[in-house]
Design brief:
The complex is a heterodimer of chains A (273) and B (266). Chain A is mostly helical. Chain A has one domain (3-267). Chain A is built from 13 helices and two strands, in the order H-H-E-E-H-H-H-H-H-H-H-H-H-H-H. In chain A, a hairpin with a 5-residue loop joins strand 1 (59-60) and strand 2. In chain A, helix 1 packs across helix 6 (112-143) and helix 2 (32-56) crosses helix 6. Chain A is globular, with a radius of gyration of 20 Å. Chain B has one domain. The two termini of chain B are 21 Å apart. By secondary structure, chain B is mainly alpha-helical. Chains A and B meet through helix 2, strand 1 and helix 9 of A and helix 2 and helix 9 of B.
Chain lengths: 273, 266
């Protein structure tokens, strides 16, 4: 094969996934109900925590310094924005398995896993900017002006990468439907580990050092508290280290999803036509 | 046609709940896994309060024991609601998909069939967590068991009633499944934070349209400082919510057009 024909083949390959991204974007736009529900929840949870931090007052956040109510509200706005923007691919995969759609989807000339991620990126492209506006609006309403507005731009960039990485982890959870049928209990555990080890509600530095050490061995800090902690004077993880960690955990997530998918397709049985 | 008596209806509801629970327990391994994971899920979430209250000791007068009791009552109420009336979470979807057709011709009230057809295994995990947390709070003694039972039952009744009211919106508004589920979750979300955090219009909302106050704060207050007056008040409020929910569902049912579905109900 010549260099130019290989390049054409690659371009065609990428265009295929570009089409999946457009489909994901269009699907998310056609179903605004989910976006409204997420936006409403985001506003409510920021309102609740704004009231909570007002009651608590300024709190020491360990290694990241002391944070006032506004900073804590902005921290939560960023973690919630990343979490809610991440496409929940596990539910799509679970539905594919339950309905049996997976049998004809894997026969397509496109990777089942990559096409789901591409559709997820499309949905992220629609929802993330709108949810960011809501998160920033609610953050400003409940927490005032952010202490370090410039760092917000950095959080947004890394946050998008973290949300994509999160969606690959969700894929792995979704693939467990081949064995478990209902993946909700596994997702609950993942979600609650995100609460604690990811520092969703409280920065990780609030927790005892043992919890911090355990958390650092998992992908959760890189996915949430790492990027969001840039709202504080001293972020939990430096930018370069955070990007390295994100790339590392993204690769691990891809390997885990691929291995699970291979095993799953080996046990797949197609009944009927 | 024989008129269904209150006693008969209650007996039927209990039988329906037993059948739904037995159905959920048919796959024992999955059932235990789901119940266990829900309990673990609650325990992990509560670490938030343990860590926060270790630093600040109280939040507007709520210490760790108060939060443990509040969280325990809400978890037990949600658990009981999901065991007895697990179908409440799917009510809006059932209405919008025309799934009511299959139960409309049944002899007992339609709402009971819809609510009692499902029983969530996770409800058992919630109930177990709730009971353990209430015990750990140290607020319960032999004399406070009756108010505790009333508090949990009232909390469950208000949770189911609010779910029915939100789900019934599907009769008039069509596909509102996601929105009604979010509203339902809001009732529970607000109930697990200290009451004094919320003031003004939000407080009014929490005592009326989003009745988190009667799911968490008021039942917890009854257990901490039991009085006959407060007990009667909570009982009356839960009964009123149940009646309003039943009335709203009945009104919605009149405008129900059906989905031309055929299904066996056993």
């Amino acid at each position: 094969m010549t260099t130019s024909s290989a390049a054409t083949a690659n371009a065609r390959h990428l265009a295929k996934y570009g089409a999946f991204i457009r489909v994901g974007f269009a699907e998310a736009r056609a179903e605004p109900g989910e976006l409204y529900a997420r936006a409403a929840f985001l506003v409510v949870i920021l309102g609740v925590f704004s009231a909570l931090w007002r009651a608590v007052g300024a709190v020491g956040t360990g290694g990241t310094g002391t944070a006032d109510r506004g900073t804590m509200v902005w921290y939560l706005a960023m973690t919630e924005w990343m979490l809610m923007s991440a496409p929940q691919l596990h539910f799509d995969i679970e539905a594919d398995v339950r309905r049996g759609d997976v049998a004809h989807q894997i026969a397509r000339p496109a990777s089942y896993l990559a096409s789901h991620v591409a559709r997820g990126i499309g949905a992220l492209g629609f929802r993330a900017p709108l949810l960011l506006v809501v998160a920033c609006g609610a953050g400003a309403a409940f927490g005032g002006r952010p202490a370090h507005p410039v760092t917000l731009a950095g959080i947004v960039g890394i946050g998008i990468a973290a949300a994509i990485s999160m969606s690959v982890w969700y894929e792995s959870i979704g693939l467990l439907a081949f064995w478990l049928g209902d993946i909700a209990p596994v997702y609950w555990i993942w979600q609650k580990l995100t609460f604690v080890l990811g520092g969703l509600l409280l920065p990780l530095t609030f927790y005892p050092s043992l919890v911090i050490h355990i958390a650092m061995l998992t992908p959760f800090p890189a996915l949430l508290t790492g990027p969001a902690s840039f709202v504080f004077v001293h972020p939990l993880i430096g930018a370069a280290e955070l990007i390295t960690l994100l790339v590392f955990w993204f690769c691990i997530a891809c390997v885990a999803a691929t291995l699970l998918f291979r095993r799953a397709t080996r046990i797949l049985q197609v009944n009927g036509g | 046609m024989e008129r269904s008596t209150v006693r008969g209806t209650l007996r039927f509801s209990a039988a329906l709940a037993r059948t739904a629970l037995a159905g959920a327990m048919a796959h024992r391994g999955t059932f235990l896994l789901q119940a266990g994971l829900m309990a673990l899920n609650n325990a992990i979430f509560f670490t938030f309060w343990i860590v926060l209250l270790h630093r600040v000791h109280t939040v507007r007068g709520y210490g760790l024991r108060d939060m443990t009791l509040l969280y325990g009552i809400v978890a037990a109420g949600v658990g009981l609601a999901m065991i007895v009336a697990g179908g409440v979470r799917q009510l809006a979807r059932v209405v919008q998909d025309g799934e009511l057709d299959a139960v409309l011709a049944q002899p007992k009230p339609t709402l009971l069939y819809v609510l009692g057809r499902r029983s969530g295994a996770s409800g058992v995990g919630d109930l177990a967590t709730g009971i353990v947390m209430i015990a750990l709070s140290g607020a319960v003694h032999a004399s406070t068991v009756p108010p505790l039972v009333l508090a949990i039952v009232a909390s469950a009744v208000v949770i189911v009633s609010s779910g029915v009211m939100f789900g019934s919106l599907a009769f008039w508004l069509g596909p509102v499944d996601a929105a009604t589920r979010q509203l339902f979750e809001l009732v529970i979300t607000f109930a697990i934070y200290p009451e004094p955090l919320f003031g003004g219009a939000l407080r009014v909302l929490l005592f009326t349209l989003v009745p988190s106050a009667f799911v968490g704060y008021v039942p917890a207050r009854l257990v901490q400082s039991p009085t006959v007056g407060l007990g009667l008040e909570l009982f009356a409020i839960a009964a009123i919510y149940a009646m309003v929910a039943s009335w709203v569902f009945g009104r919605g049912l009149r405008s129900y057009c059906g989905g031309s579905r055929f299904e066996l109900v056993g």
